[in-house]
Amino acid sequence: MNTLEYIEQHKERFLKELFELLKQPSISADPKFTKDVRKTAEMVKDNLINIGIEKSQLYETDGHPIVYGEKIIDEKLPTILIYGHYDVQPPDPLDLWESEPFNPVVRDGKIYARGACDDKGQFFMHVKAAEIMIKTNTLPCNIKFMIEGEEEVGSENLESFVKNNKNLLTADIILISDTGIIANDTPSITTGLRGLSYVEVEVTGPNRDLHSGLYGGAVANPINILCKMISSLHDENNHITIPGFYENVEIISRQERDLMAQAPFNLDKYKEELNISDVYGEDSYTTMERNSIRPTLDVNGIWGGYTGEGAKTVIASKAFAKISMRLVPNQKSDEITRLFQSHFESIAPSGVTVKVTPHHGGEAYVSPTNEKGYLAASKAMQDSFGKEPIPVRSGGSIPIVALFEKELGLKSILMGFGLDSDAIHSPNEHYGLFNFFKGIETIPLFFKYFSK
Ligand code: BES
Ligand code: MN
Ligand code: MN
After folding, report:
1. 216 and 130, same structural domain?
2. Helix (H) or strand (E) holding 142
3. pTM exceeding 0.90
4. What's the total number of domains in the chain?
């Protein structure tokens, strides 16, 4: 039986099994769900054991467990290490979901649930692809699985797991489906990820909230000041003003930029999909360049003062913001965080104090397009989509990927099947049935070409 026949015969069960995983609220960020996260890890482990990855177990960490499994058929054959994450983002805001986030349903050919695309639906394709290869006796090489439960909160414990288990994790390549393709008729392979520096800032003015009439105009208002400070972080060309921020930014040649510009992109459709009348960003760069090869700084949340019903006349004592910076190759996350901190402190006017607290971060990643791993992915997609995939740098981050390279000396192939429109991290996250099954179809082809 070939892959397509196997899928056809078992697709209802594949979906049922995926739905069981999607029903679990494995929200890594929220301690209320610690038990659910663990239960999900157990289910993933059981899934691996059931398909014949007998050596599967949970590895405990200081946080959520890591699911690890392997099937070594011959030490002399190559080994493919599959990485993915079973944790998900919180589903908020709940009232914007058309169906419950943890009650998966199929609508219009798509699976709706938190984690459907990011990343349960995608790592599960690998579990099912492995099942097919094992059951049809076509597994051409060794396979290892490492599915973690803390990707959405920075993979801190996976970092130490990787550093302490280098022998366990020896492999020839890492294969990951946690990214996307351009469109269902335009396959692509992700060749780069951005790094990340994430900080929280706190601006403190007077020692208590004040009457905005009695004190207004005479003391610094932390919210006004915070807004002013934040808006000064970009200049009129939308360049970031932090001294040294661009110091190590990789310069991309005109030739490479021209090549990038050949990837299909429809600006009108982009605007229409987001219901915006225009795009916005750094001068002299295209939209696709702005969201991939250029570093950015964005406020992710901002709060302070009175936000309840009606009007309350008050000058808040404190204002807060969460700020992310997406980084490109050669920028170092720790260094950018330091540059941000000293700049932000330096621009605070007298009358307020500023505190900057760093969160998790990570480095950017690029993968070559002329090596065995990329070529195997390219041929696999060529076969399954009937079209040669386009290499694309993504704007998203999977910080652990750069760490895999540093600690294990292994490149990762980012062969994801999601779409930008899948609403990952947003209400109504979904994953196309087409994409789920196309992934399952493509993965054994990768194994075949990589093992040749
Ligand atoms: N799978 C995403 C990253 C992604 C999605 C990359 C689509 C490329 C295309 C991952 O789960 C994620 O959300 N990463 C976070 C970073 C993490 C440290 C929270 C991100 O990019 O914001
Ligand atoms: Mn993900
Ligand atoms: Mn994510």
Report:
1. no
2. strand 142-148
3. yes
4. 2
